[in-house]
User: What shape does this take?
Amino acid sequence: MKELFIKYINRECSEEEIQQIVSYFQHSDDFSEVPTIEAISQLLEDFPDMDEDSVSLIRSNILKIARDEKAVKIKRRRITFMFYAAAVFVGVVAMTYVFKESLFNPNSMKESVVESSQTIPGTDKATLTLEDGSQIALEKNKNFKTQNAVSNGETIVYTNSDKNKTAIVYNTLTIPRGGQFYVELSDGTKVWLNSASQLKYPVTFGDDKPRSVELLYGEAYFEVSPSSKHNGQGFSVFTASQEVKVLGTEFNIKAYSDEDYVYTTLVNGSIALNVENQTRELLPKQQSIHSSKYNVLKVVEADVYSEISWKNGLFSFKSKSLKEIMTVLSRWYDIDVIFEIKEPEKIMFNGVLKKNLSLEQMLEIINRTNLINAYEIENNTITIK
Assistant: This one.
């Protein structure tokens, strides 16, 4: 299959080989052997723009996959829109024009969208709250600078110039719905913050002081500066219900206040999780699932690629219900979601899509499964029918 994908990217597939790819997506429940989007992205990084004939050929192949959709409609009630994977892996780096007129032809759509304007995806933005309570809006093309931090509106980077100060000064970074942001802490730790998240951290840590930050709510990916660079001082991340202790590693924490479970996913290194007098150590590619409400703490094998795809500009939905997907989209596009009937909430999907698609493009892909009757977008609210 990998060889076929590479041939497809290079426009060398015969009609029979294209049908093999289509058949693979139609008849497979497990897509773990499919080359990852990240791997295919690497192949495409230096890929030149296609000429119009090639674009038309790719588009017609994608439409052919879409037409075959009905042959794969229900398999264990798991509706897979992986038939769009061809569109995604061809377009994931620079070829988003695959999603243009033909794929989203208004004449072929259901009459389901009320507003004609496109709902744009989220962007880099945040609100920085200083120790004195003053707030600064961080957004593109807006520079900001203090003695310890500099921001270009899309990132903020701290330095450790005040490491000898005895008093610890805290900043808080708040990411709204429809936003994301990157912060580099004074110790060199890198943090990517997802939509609807808030992080509290010291402006400087100090050489001989414990390093700790607090994820007040939301989701964050941490690339921690190792303790060997900080006189052996470890690093801790606190949430409302747990503490994660690390020496130097990469991990993701998802702890939204409107969700019952906290998910901690280890990418590499090792971490110790402290929850209600229990300690669990995680190995790479493991995930802890914790809920104080349901008194649950367990460790499972994680699909790391899917868990951290948000940081890399992708939505990776693997066996996710429509309700879970709409929760993710509501944060990214800053919209509310109403299910007019409950049945569609439980429909399961698989798929990988770029975060820079408009909301309408996202919804139309889901709508093409034919398992929802229609949807409406009005007054910044989506109604699923």
The longest strand covers residues 211-223.
